[in-house]
Amino acid sequence: MTVSGMHTQPPASAALRGFVTVDGCRLHYIRQGQGPAVVMLHASPCSAKVMSDLQARWGAEFTTIAFDLPGFGLSQSPDGVITIPVLAEMIVGGMRALGIEQAALYGRHTGASVCLDIALNHPGMVSMLLTDGLPIFAAPYTEERLAQYLPPIESRWDGGHLTWAYFRYREQHMFWPWDYSVIAHRADADLPDVQFLHRGAVELLEAAETYAQTYQAAFRYETLPLVDKVEVPVFWGNRPGDSQFKTIPRYPAGAPIHVVDRDPEIALEEELALLRLHPAVGDVPQFQSGFAASSLPMRLEDYIETRHGCVRAIGIGLQHGGVPLIYLHDLPGGIDLHLEEIELLAQNRPVLAFELAGNGESYVSSAPGNALWLDQIDDVIAQLGWARVELFAHGTSAGLALDYALKHPANVAGVILRSPPILSAEERALFRTGYAPDITPSEDGGYLLRLWHHLRDQELWYPHFRRDHASRRTTPPRIDPAWLTRRAVTLLKQPEHYAPIWQAVFDQDVAAALGAVTVPVHVIVDPSDIFAGTSASHASGSTPAAISE
User: Fold this and answer.
1) With helix as H, strand as E and coil as C, how does 505-522 read?
2) H/E element holding 490?
3) Among the four residues 354, 391, 459, 549, which has the most C-beta atoms within 10 Å?
4) How many CB atoms within 10 Å of residue 386?
């Protein structure tokens, strides 16, 4: 197995994120704490984010590393049939890439099966095994039953797949299996709060194309015959209210079963006490972003530390010569929505794109805005050691790019603006108060449709809230459901920042900044962009193609 990756170690109180590559597949992980290593694997259909409460507590004593299982979160899915042994070998590769010689393993449901396989086949790398609901089934699932349980998630023009995902995830906390909504299958569990349900729904949508392949592996893996073959210290954890709690009688006599409390806060303390019994040996290597390496590869995706938290970044063409380009994504938004344009711009020069705090996978505890983003641009450029850069701002990040150029003219070779929102004071005042809907998660799931039709209507009218014949847009609308879903998933990762970021955009007087900036500015316009009409009179080009030449 071939592996590559950077070694990492965060401050005890901070959660850091990173990627390693195993057999050509990118694995994403979240790391928190200091001390002996604990590797944590989540249930389906979630991601490592579900482990955040445990990592925050356990990180006081352990280096916790929660991987996104392949096919979930930001981890790529491997080619071929996905089985628990395949997943296990990829996680082992990830551990080796991070320089982890030994770890305690903690897994829930699908993650528990993967941990079991690792413990059986790589016992020297495992100090102990602690499961939370090892999947045990009375009878194998048939192909027909798996197809019923794991239906395809297909994007719909009306956004109905968003609410389906939300209520599908909600249903699994009310009935087990989720699609057997009869009293005999009623779950003995508390319904999670709306933030928990929102996170799960977004993770399901994020993995729409791959979730079934990884999820089905847990149903095909027979765990019960393997329980008494584990040679490392093991605790088969189960909790009241969990779908696997009723399987306790199926375990072999004498199996070390440990029932934890129904209350998650109490349970995590009980599990922590078990982890203390058999800590892993060996030091965990220090944290270092891939972007901190002395020599960068041509292409790299990782996180960069800034004074306002880690930002997810992608660098392309990093070994090219020429003036480097910093790519600023549309606001609110994320880099995944612009990969084709980033690739085009990087044909003959180094390009670095990163997600500004409050967008995509760059999380922040304070309110995002221009002052914070300017600091992050500074920190990213400093990390790469670039003395002079060019800035490319897609759409609504124009004000930010111009503001940076005004503050650091000696460090900015030029600014390229794609369809910037050049608005009058009256337009900005109008848009600040009513342009973006509130998409705070709500129990009825209605916020999902508010976002969907906001995105769709922006393509059909300008401004989108004036739905009359005079406001109809005449360019072909970008309303393909798959494309709108990509946008929605990106924006739903931090819904609390959606409307405030729009307000921050409209606080920027792009027209005034254009008149004040002293570095060269090149404005290009794509007629399909939302604010193309406001910037057409300033345009010096119509596509980004010429910029890459």
Assistant:
1) HHHCCHHHHHHHCCCCEE
2) helix 481-492
3) 354
4) 16
